[in-house]
Amino acid sequence: TQHQPSIVSLDKLTLRTLKRTRELFLHNPLTPPPEDRESKKVKISAKIYGEYKNVEPQTIGRRPPTRPEKSLNVPSEKQTATNEDPNNKKKILLLGSQETLEVKGSHRFPTEQGVELDENAGEGGNDPVLEDEQFQQILEDLPIAQQQKAVVSHGLVEYKSQAGIAERLMPPGALRRPPTRFHKPKWHAPWKLHLVVVGHLGWVRSIGVDPSNEWFATGSADRTVKIWDLATGDLKVTLTGHINAIRGIQVSKTHPYIFTVGEDKMVKCWDLEYNKVIRHYHGHLSGVFSVAMHPTISVLITGGRDSTARVWDIRTKAQIHCLTGHTSTVWSVDTQATDPQVITGSADKTVRLWDLSTGKTMATLTNHKKSVRSVLIHPDEFSFASASADNIKKWKFPHGNFISNLSGHKAIINTLALNPDNVLVSGSDDGTMHFWDWKSGYNFQREETKVQPGSLESEAGIFCAKFDVTGTRLITAEADKTVKIWKEDERATPDSHPITWRPNRSASK
Prior knowledge:
The chain is mainly beta. 13% of the residues lie in helices and 35% in strands. It contains 5 helices and 31 strands. A 4-stranded antiparallel beta sheet has the order 4-31-30-29, with no helix packed on it. A hairpin with a 3-residue loop joins strand 22 (383-388) and strand 23. Mean pLDDT is 80; it is low at 69-129 and 154-174.
């Protein structure tokens, strides 16, 4: 007998189609992801901690400890008036002296600088106030050197009496800040332009340096990856395959591979022995802007416009984690071998520290007021830096404690680079580069790039900067379609370029 196919009802087919459609469009890049209550709670807690961590709870109205008092010897005819009622005394502290003058009558106003009241002062709103005639008699019996001080003290009491100011004491030390420590900057030689490499037909957006220090790769808006000789600047190979601007390049230290990401949503792995693409990593729903490779395990991290950072297994092409929590584009990603192993900077003005084993946020840093375009981990210290249009901020691992600000740029900061000599370089949209001493935050050089002939002045922008392995050459990718190589000035000395440094006390705020 012929097998009859089973008939499925129309309702089941419709539900099945709707389920598949929902799964397909579940992550719509046009709609923001749902708000994570735990992340919002962490964000608010971080803001409260940053604002009020240095405030110590104090009881308002507590009287400061009384100082040791010493009474002046008043002549006998005045002594009887003072000793009539021991509980009804007022002591006037002579300014600039530890001596106090006891006079009859208490005072209902609080202690101020130059006025000292006894414990019974302030009780009763109708206590008598020292009359001018009584004060004049006491003043005549004082030494001439102390008469002016007594007049000032008495004037303070009278001013409080006439103004009727309420008793409100703020104890000293209610707001205490820890002492700020300043590092003296180390001298660094200034940097100067060494070589200009021309060949790209569009903005140069990314750089990757070979671990052997023989060549470097650049990615451009002309959709090509070019490999150059580091010593001479000669073009070696041009790789084509992307269909949009290439925004990130990462060279593997353990394999003959380079990884490229672009605005075409593609993450590609190139085998440099054959100059061909051997793997694709699919998953991003929009352009991919950053890429980083884990230093010890075969894991790749990418960040893009879909507000996520994705963790990939290099060999199997499988997505290990999708790091969600940012509410806007993930501009920059960096990674290290110890927790937190991944940090991301986003257009939502936050920096997040991630636990790679669980794929969850360890800390959210909300100090920046503008989009965070670049993050950089220090290779030796347990710290990192983040760059935004407002400031460059230094942080301390593992909890992301704020260290200091590096201020001076007047445009959007696109990139950060650091060499083994602790020279930090920041490049911005207006074509300026600032060279900083990492530990002290001293800005020892400000350099403005020059566009190649035939380019507009507005094309003086720096999109990416990387040091070579030795840290003696700096490579910059720029908006005038060139790649520039910078070197230290060998003729510079501490005498020709002295350090002019003053501690910046506002940098730690």
